[in-house]
């Protein structure tokens, strides 16, 4: 029967059987899923696992520092940090299509992992060995929404399912593939991960890259990072973190609207707030955030973020809207 103890024991045995005494890497995104997957694999194979944190330049404000600190402090795992901002932004230049963005991001992640893998082997003085396994925190809903790995997305190809390159050299280890998010959180708690990690709101692997409707550029990312940081700070201050599943903050970079700020006309971009409540991300409802909190966020974003002159609230459930805009 389903208990977290059973899930952990079963998965640890399966991972040992699959990986043996070979080496594995796990991409950490800062989210719950990759953290729990990493902790499970670490329990199974110890220091044959190295975690890799790819800073793709699409993270939110302060997030990279958090991954480097929190997760290592909690698990003592070996961590390799790769600064890949330029690489990702170059690969994404000129691209607006959401599925295309995910394919590019999925591919670039793998290229970075390949390079990191050979460095890890070299650093360990283990020439002749290679890293054969890649651990991913793929959940059941990711598989379903990506079309079950059939190559055709039902809804969207999550970057780590439908977005993987065809010449992938790693065998995948995906110990969470049958679990829903609430189950993953329970398994994480069972493994001793701290509350800050286990209760973290979901954040997609492609990061802010799929929260800019239009082309992804450094300037737009910086704008969105500021707006997102304000929204997150105010929602946290209002004590809403646990009642809101997640709140994407989206920059409509391809849309302009007229505004008036100071004494003059502006022609800027709208920011969308998309707070949702959900059990498993398969369906969701828009969160009834108190007006005062929304007002504060709106005032702060339009005052503090240049080029943004409008804040709009998304009041669509899922279905028909998805949680993310792309
Ligand atoms: P949607 O937008 O499909 O999102 O309603 C459902 C959940 O999945 C997250 N999401 C992703 N996570 N790679 C990820 O790792 C992706 O490509 C991706 N797309 C969406 C989204 O944030 C929500 O929690």
TrEMBL record:
Its EC number is 6.3.5.2. ATP binds at residues 29-35. Coiled coil: none annotated. Pathway: Purine metabolism; GMP biosynthesis; GMP from XMP (L-Gln route): step 1/1. One of its GO terms (molecular function) is GMP synthase (glutamine-hydrolyzing) activity. Keywords: ATP-binding, Glutamine amidotransferase, GMP biosynthesis, Ligase, Nucleotide-binding, Purine biosynthesis. Residues 2-200 form the GMPS ATP-PPase domain. It is an enzyme of class 6 (ligase). It catalyses: XMP + L-glutamine + ATP + H2O = GMP + L-glutamate + AMP + diphosphate + 2 H(+). Transmembrane segments: none annotated. It comes from the Bacteria. Homodimer. Catalyzes the synthesis of GMP from XMP. This is GMP synthase [glutamine-hydrolyzing]. It comes from Streptacidiphilus cavernicola. The lineage of its organism: Bacteria, Bacillati, Actinomycetota, Actinomycetes, Kitasatosporales. The chain holds residues 204 to 529 of 529 of the full protein.
């Amino acid at each position: 029967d389903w208990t977290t103890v059973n899930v952990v024991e079963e998965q640890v045995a399966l991972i040992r059987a699959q990986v043996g005494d070979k080496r594995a890497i796990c991409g950490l995104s800062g989210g719950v899923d990759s953290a729990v997957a990493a902790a499970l694999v670490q329990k199974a194979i110890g220091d044959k696992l190295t975690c890799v944190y790819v800073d793709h330049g699409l993270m939110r404000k302060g997030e990279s520092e958090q991954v480097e600190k929190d997760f290592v402090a909690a698990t003592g795992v070996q961590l390799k940090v790769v600064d890949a901002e330029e690489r990702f932004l170059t690969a994404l230049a000129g691209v607006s299509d959401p599925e295309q963005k995910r394919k590019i991001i999925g591919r670039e992640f793998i290229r970075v992992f390949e390079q990191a893998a050979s460095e890890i082997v070299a650093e360990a003085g283990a020439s002749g060995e290679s890293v054969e396994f890649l651990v991913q925190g793929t959940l059941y809903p990711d598989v379903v929404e990506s079309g079950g790995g059939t190559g055709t997305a039902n809804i969207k190809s999550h970057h780590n399912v439908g977005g993987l390159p065809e010449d992938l050299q790693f065998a995948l280890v995906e110990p969470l593939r049958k679990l829903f998010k609430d189950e993953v959180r329970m398994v994480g708690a069972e493994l001793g991960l701290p509350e800050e990690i286990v209760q973290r709101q979901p954040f997609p692997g492609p990061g802010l890259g799929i929260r800019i409707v239009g082309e992804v550029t450094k300037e737009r990312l910086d704008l969105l990072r500021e707006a997102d940081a304000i929204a997150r700070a105010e929602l946290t201050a209002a004590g809403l973190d646990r009642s809101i599943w997640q709140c994407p903050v989206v920059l409509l970079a391809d849309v302009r609207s007229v505004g008036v700020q100071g004494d003059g006309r502006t022609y800027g971009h709208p920011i969308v707030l998309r707070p949702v409540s959900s059990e498993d991300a398969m369906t969701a409802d828009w969160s009834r955030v108190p007006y005062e909190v929304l007002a504060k966020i709106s005032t702060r974003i339009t005052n503090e973020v240049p080029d943004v002159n409008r804040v709009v609230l998304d009041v669509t459930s899922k279905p028909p809207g998805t949680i993310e805009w792309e």
